[in-house]
């Protein structure tokens, strides 16, 4: 029998194989005996679990690997036929409670479009062209968040509304308005928040956290605001935005919870809230009855009092909040629904419920919502419409409604 040495001398390949097996055995033994050696994946790939607000430094955000589930197509959506959802976010009195009013949302329903899209789009397009730099802007430190938001919308919209939007290799096309958007080319063709304004009916703001732990308005597409201006709120923190607008009971009931929420909200969460206002003109983009949009001093104090009810409009807002996983920016969407009060009051249960809600406002809320300018005319009309519904048997005497909030 040949010796092992002789075998290796005759067959060098066999020698190389033996050496390789020996080295492999040594490596396995060496690393299996070191119990705390782990691969540091954080250096090359984002973590899948975010750092909670209590464990990260103020202003710190480490990108995480999260993507919301792909939304299904909106059922039977049609740009000409799909009506706006009838949000009526007001409740019977006798007491009006000031709260954040947050409810858990579904990522599928993030952006709502309907048959008023083309109307909104036309108004937004004109305002972007004539005063876009005042309505859409982004601070340098929030540019990544604005681009991430644009990328997120370009992923979401073609899946949710495939009859309108098509995903392309460089961005997104709107086949209804015949617009093409390249979001890959640098520099971008336009400020990213202007493009976002062209894509959807919502207005959008992005809050970013500073080194002091406060959330600041650093990017926005606020084209249809009604009562406020982005240029006046830009770079303000969350508290300054609300106190400068004299939001009722903000310090006492809202500030702490709101500030903490913006710190805690994570990319896998989305919340929704609703509010409503009355308006005594038909200005979807700007309520011209409170004064010129470019005036430094506007407010309900300039509005004409007791205008006929045909001038009264119901303005409802659906707002969503979610955090972007890469940049950490908190996205705040504001979708406005805008209808004449004379139309809204024809709906079952609405006039009595709305009248009761208005009567429940405290003095501070009433002042904030400008009720002194329209309350007497509006309540007289709503009471009359409510009585008609009772007399016709459409609703019961007590006006109890089977509809759940916010409808």
Describe the structure.
This protein has 407 residues and is α+β, with helices and mostly antiparallel strands. Helices cover 34% and strands 15% of the residues. It contains 12 helices and 10 strands. A hairpin with a 6-residue loop joins strand 9 and strand 10 (330-340). Helix 7 runs antiparallel to helix 8 (250-264) and helix 10 packs antiparallel against helix 12.
Structural key phrases:
globular; 407 residues; 3-stranded antiparallel beta sheet; alpha+beta; 34% helix; disordered N terminus
Chart the SSEs and their pairings:
Elements: H1 4-10, H2 12-32, E1 103-104, H3 117-135, E2 136-138, H4 143-160, E3 165-167, E4 171-174, E5 179-182, H5 192-199, E6 203-209, E7 215-221, H6 230-233, H7 238-244, H8 250-264, E8 270-279, E9 313-323, E10 330-340, H9 341-344, H10 350-360, H11 363-368, H12 375-391
Helix pairs in contact: 1-2, 3-5, 4-5, 7-8, 10-12
Mean pLDDT metric: 89
* Uncertain stretches: 1-8, 13-17, 26-44
List SSEs in N-to-C order: HHEHEHEEEHEEHHHEEEHHHH
- Counting DSSP H or I runs of 4 or more residues, the number of helices is 12
Tell me the Rg in angstroms: 29 Å
Strand portion, in percent? 15-25%
What is the CA–CA distance across the termini? 93 Å
